[in-house]
Amino acid sequence: MGGITLRRQYLAGVTIVMVSGELDLATADELEEFVRRVHRAGDEVVMDLADTSFMDCTGLNALLHLRQEISRDGGTLRLVGLQREPIRVLRLSGMDRWLPTHDSLEQALTAATGRRHRGTPGGLIGST
Questions:
Q1: What is the DSSP letter of 56?
Q2: Residues 60 and 91: beta-carbon distance below 8 Å
């Protein structure tokens, strides 16, 4: 099983989480813990999965847990850049109806900031 690399970036009202590697049994808990730690209350969350080559049902379950938590906090979890295998898992499970997906980071940010502020994304605040 492969590893995972997680980074975050903040914009006004949006937490961007960049995921690289495989999202599976070995890494799902790490993703959940990371997002819980970096997500700011009330923020929209855009998860960039462009560098995530594999996702199993455990990874999907982690995304669903995070969706619930972020929703309770007043935000929406949006996925962007899904590769062939992860999008296949999402579609076969029917969870693409519950997790908004976008073709580009720009589209996801426009949707996230439009929902929250009806404006354009704010400036970069910080990243790790």
A1: -
A2: no
- pLDDT tens for residues 84-119? 999 999 999 999 888 999 999 999 999 999 865 443
pTM of the model: 0.85
Pairing of β 126-127 and β 4-11: antiparallel
CB 19 within 8 A of CB 49: yes
Which residues sit opposite 44 in a β-bridge?
14
| Beta sheet of 4-11, edge-to-edge order | 101-102, 77-80, 44-55, 14-23, 4-11, 126-127
Structure tokens at 68: 């619930």
Q: How many Cβ atoms are within 10 Å of 13's Cβ, its own excluded?
A: 18
Structure tokens at 10: 């903040």
In one-letter notation, the amino acid at residue 80 is: V
